[in-house]
Amino acid sequence: MNTNADPAELRKFSDLAHRWWDPASEFKPLHEINPLRLDWIDRKTALAGKTVLDVGCGGGILSEGMAGAGANVTGIDLSEKALGVARLHLFESGRKVDYQLCSAEDFAEAHPGAFDVVTCMELLEHVPNPASTIAACARLVKPGGHVFFSTLNRNPKSYLFAVIGAEYVLKLLPRGTHDYTKFIKPSELARYCRQSGLETQELIGMSYNPLTRVYSLGRDTDVNYLVHTIRER
Ligand SMILES: C[S@@+](CC[C@H](N)C(=O)[O-])C[C@H]1O[C@@H](n2cnc3c(N)ncnc32)[C@H](O)[C@@H]1O
User: Fold this and answer.
1) What is the pTM of this model?
2) Was 233 annotated as part of a binding site?
């Protein structure tokens, strides 16, 4: 069993898991960004009919979205409670997702090269060794397949927006959701990807406008950003 997990992080998500599908809860930001990231991933991969793995799927907001787009989705996470909520929600939505309690590293041992698309969103800033998670995602995807990451940049602006702004001023997230020291610069993420045989195709920012309260994708990668990579053949 691979131990690239922080028990305190898993507890944080497990304690809140029952509110995962409440769009006004602590998970409101995930609900609001979901259509943007789903559409972006779908445009790059044409999800219908693809075999997709969602790493760190939590309550399944993105997993279900991708299943709704016609993909055959498996979701893995290390929070049993989050997976329980994800499984229950399938009864409500009528969608099909295979949820399993497993780390990316262990799943890669068992299923190397099994997926057309791997998504790993808002997870890397919660694990002790992001390079190991990235290497596992690279192992899980087929040669030529797509791997997507999203995380938080590390600089004074991201500290101000993602920690002080989101947790203390706007109260979009509970205090302590994010540990600034675990944020990852795009250059670091690109290096981990390269070391794992993933070629970066696109880096795109995601910004929140506190006045309009709307998220959008664009050039500003200072705070939240997403990366699209392809595994070398
Ligand atoms: C911020 S949530 C993101 C959920 C989902 N990826 C999304 O973007 O909608 C982070 C998730 O990562 C999970 N997690 C934390 N550490 C993990 C690890 N080492 N392996 C797998 N999942 C982990 C948590 O249980 C939680 O469900």
Assistant:
1) 0.97
2) no
